[in-house]
Amino acid sequence: MLLKTLPNGWTFALSNEVFTDFRGVLWEGRGIEPELAMFDPANLMGSHLRAVRQLIEMINADTHS
User: I need a labelling partner for 55 at 20 to 30 A (CA). Which of 3, 12, 22, 40 fits?
Assistant: First the structure.
């Protein structure tokens, strides 16, 4: 990280490196798509509880098999 101090005393950091995957793809900014979509992109906040419950069910199913 490249740290800079602003005139008002605040500090911010800039990424000064480029990280790619093994194929050379740069994912920064757009992100990696999940294997399992648990949130509704049109309603992220409204689908949060459902996604958490689904995750708990998956964890419980995995620990009981």
Answer: 22
